[in-house]
Amino acid sequence: MRTALRAASSLAVVALAVPGCSVFGGSSPDPVPVGTAAAVAGEPASDPAMARFYDQRLQWADCSGGFECSQLTVPVDHADPAGATTTLAVVRSRTSATGDDRLGSVVLNPGGPGASGVEYARTAESVLSADVRDHFDVVGFDPRGVGGSNPLRCLTDAQVDTFLSTDPTPDDPAEVQALSEQTTSLGLGCQQAGELAAHVDTRSVAKDMDVLRAALGDDKLNYLGKSYGTYLGAWYAEQFPQRVGRFVLDGALDPQLTGEEVNAGQAAGFEVALRAYVQGCLDGDDCPLTGGVDDGVAQVRQFLDSLDADPLPTGTDRELVQGLGYFAVAWPLYSRSAWPRLSAALTRAFAGDGSAMLALADAYSHRGTDGRYLDNSSTAIYAVNCLDRDDAETLPQVQDTVTHLAAQSPTFGPFLAWAGLACANWPIAPVGEARAVHAEGAGPILVVGTTRDPATPYAWAQSLAAELSSGTLLTYDGDGHTAYRTGSRCIDSAVDAYLVSGEEPDADTTCS
Questions:
Q1: Domains defined for the chain, CATH in brackets
Q2: Is the confidence at residue 402, as pLDDT, over 70?
Q3: Per-residue pLDDT averaged across 94-109, rounded?
Q4: What is the mean pLDDT of the chain?
Q5: Which residues are known catalytic residues?
Q6: Reported pTM
Q7: I need a labelling partner for 266 at 20 to 30 A (CA). Which of 56, 111, 157, 274 fits?
Q8: Is-contact 387 428, C-beta < 8 A?
Q9: 92 has which bridge partners?
Q10: What whole-number distance in Å separates Cα of residue 459 and Cα of residue 475?
Q11: d(CA 77, CA 198)
């Protein structure tokens, strides 16, 4: 989940830098019948105006690495299927299984919003077990307006640099004005990017997924969503409960949370994760922090505060300013395996060299060494989030939230609270709302939560599993963001058994 921390993925799950795919000429239709899944009364597939979308056949072409690529056509506005259309980039890796061993497709979404499902699917060997890949075609798609799917171009690369470097915790009216101007420019840039900018909301993406399901020839959608991908999956289940196949929602975001509640939860989650990192650092070798956990956390916070007035040189024409420092600290907290990189970067930063911290910040935002951003995830996240909820705060409300979150989460609270200013200034009206989803009539949905997850706190997994009519909670007692395929054999075995055989774990199963 990237929300206000813009939290990369893609970053919320794993940093990806795999080239996207393109469709080459000379392709032929899939030899397996597609687009033949029977319609259910009352769903969009039974609407004659949607027939041209639900009946389309994907044209697949080899696109390196054993993958095939295609494009799916969907309406820009699902309420106006006769109007403008847009295309989505799709990639798949086919299973060699036949007969009863072939279980159809499993569609992936890595998070964001703004992360590329195409790039994520290309890492299928690390994302899914061999057993799952032996039974399913692995399918990824870039959501509308993202990656290879007519991406919104809201800012130039140079403007993104300025946006990410703007003081994220303003201390005076001039700094508040500067931050407000940057978020306003972002919103206007997205608005000017075209009609699609008003329709990149999650509910529209969920409708796209159902068109994709039909085009793949699957009667039901099998799905693995991580981080923001759980929010997308939950809204798919709410809108198409009869089409829910085997659903895994890992690193859950509860749709009933308001924007302020999401920011508060993330602030608390990152505070917990920071404390876990500091403890691990102090227990190990070559730790730049000293004293106890409270002391170490205070040292990190003091370092971030110092960047406000005294940015660090990096050996480039970019300084390590406070905003980039926050991203540099946050990125390694997504995975325990990245903690040593944070320790090494802090060691250099405490000695006056911000270059390693800048590299972490750039990994977070997918910025290449040539100054170009590999995708539009740093801006698309706002375009989606600001459409998804109608509870944007005013400037005075944001300022009140800053005070509130600073008391609860002194390191990350103000940073996340001020990020709420983006939706306050967004020029496109929201189309969604925060509310509970129940997905009445859906098949079993497996919700996975990690007890010390920084970006999607464990409490969110508990509440989502409880509100879904067919939700089952699987708990990982550990660190990092998301649980499946991150090191727990217990979690991996439980998820694999569910995906391959439909076997649900016992209620409230806990793994370590």
A1: 36-151+198-256+434-511 (3.40.50.1820)
A2: yes
A3: 96
A4: 91
A5: 227, 453, 481
A6: 0.91
A7: 157
A8: yes
A9: 68, 139
A10: 11
A11: 9
